[in-house]
Amino acid sequence: MALVTHHWHAYEPWIGPHQFFGREHDPERRPGPTPGDLGTAAFIRASTPPLENGHYLLRRDQTTRERTWTDVQGALDWLTSTYAQQPPDATLSYVDPAARLEHSRTGLEGGSDAIWHYTVSLSANRVVVYAVISCPHRHHTRTPCPLPPN
Fold this sequence. Notes:
The structure is a single chain. By secondary structure, this protein is of the alpha+beta class. It has one domain. A four-stranded antiparallel β-sheet has the order 2-1-4-3. Strand 3 and strand 4 form a beta hairpin. Helix 2 runs antiparallel to helix 3.
């Protein structure tokens, strides 16, 4: 029996309009009905946030060694540095970054994902979304790991 190693994969920020999260865009945010179908191929190539977090793991080409960790601190450091590069709109009130980070630590250590989603420009109607996904994923148990850790 193989030892299952819990680890995390991070996916780069997507920045786009808040309206992208409307129902009319749902088909773009999920794979098609079969692995070889055109909808699945388009979904895998996309960088848009999926409807289900575990579907990030289907995007093998977007999974890198630099963003794969067996130690949760590496994932938290990445979240912190990404946040610093994509800070939220200063005119809006947000959860304290330290509190958000501690919440993410607790979730990641418990097998949940950390999805950071917030407005980066209110005037330009822009949101940012980036993710650290737990692997193996507890809700997508049939999705294989896109890049097993060394």
